[in-house]
Amino acid sequence: MNDKNAFTTASKGQLLKNEPLANYTSWRTGGPADYVYIPADLEDLSHFLQQLPDTVPLTWLGLGSNTLIRDKGVDGVVIITQGVLNKLTQVSPTEIRVEAGVASAQLARHTARMGAAGLEFMAGIPGTVGGALAMNAGCFGGETWQFVQAVETINRRGEIKKRPLTDFEVTYRHVARPSDEWFVAGYFGLVPGDKEKSLANIRTLLERRNNTQPTGTANCGSVFRNPPGNYAGRLIEECGLKGKSLGGARISEKHANFIINENRASSADIENLIAEVGAIVLEKTGVRLIAEVCIIGRM
Description:
- The protein is of the alpha+beta class.
- The chain has 3 domains: 3-80, Uridine Diphospho-n-acetylenolpyruvylglucosamine Reductase, domain 2, CATH 3.30.43.10; 88-212, Uridine Diphospho-n-acetylenolpyruvylglucosamine Reductase, domain 3 (2-Layer Sandwich); 232-296, UDP-N-acetylenolpyruvoylglucosamine reductase, C-terminal domain (Uridine Diphospho-n-acetylenolpyruvylglucosamine Reductase, domain 1, Alpha-Beta Complex).
- 25% of the residues lie in helices and 28% in strands.
- It has a 5-stranded antiparallel sheet, with helices on both faces. It has a 4-stranded mixed sheet with strand order 1-2-5-3, with no helix packed on it. The protein has a 3-stranded antiparallel sheet with strand order 17-18-19.
- Helix 3 runs antiparallel to helix 5.
């Protein structure tokens, strides 16, 4: 990007040049972005986008889970939402507005403490509400959009719109949306529940997650979508791939649908291991696994 003419900013947020993205991803890998912008709040983000030329590529990151940034980095500007777009507002007894940078687990605990039930499963989603909205994230039998009543999006011109569910086509781990719009908030329905019961349910779910997934390691969450009627982890394990490594990347021996950055892996190590796993599973089982992780950046 031409530094002089790319854009100017009088915004309140933080603009970082040639910022390593490994600092912002749960895999702890990835090259630099031309620029990283950390907005002060939603209003500031709108202002920043209003004066950003349409020719500048935009990428969005929350907690940086479910994302693999290639080693050569990312063109343009990467917007960081985690910890910034962090407001939770109860708009009615049956609805809460949650900004995109709120961690999914925080939303689960917040609504449980309010005495609302249904969103406990989100404690097991390793990402932000923005990411959960973008991919209809789910776990433990629940999916994000089951509880969404409306969303707010922002476009390249900084315009914020509240949109109904009918504006989107939602399927398993996919949400069709306009290419120049991104989720900045979701409105979630609240169902009356029992506070202590909901908090106990969250503790149970997290204990189950800790017992079955490699929590506490550098990973992105599930790498592949579950194929219809089966589980990606089961297929990978049946192919004898648990513990398989490539460079510094290794398939978890605890759960085969997780790849761990075990020894200073490069993003190329991880991407190549993903491709190799997919090829082996297809050859041995006839099932073509679809990556759940989003791979972005310069080739």
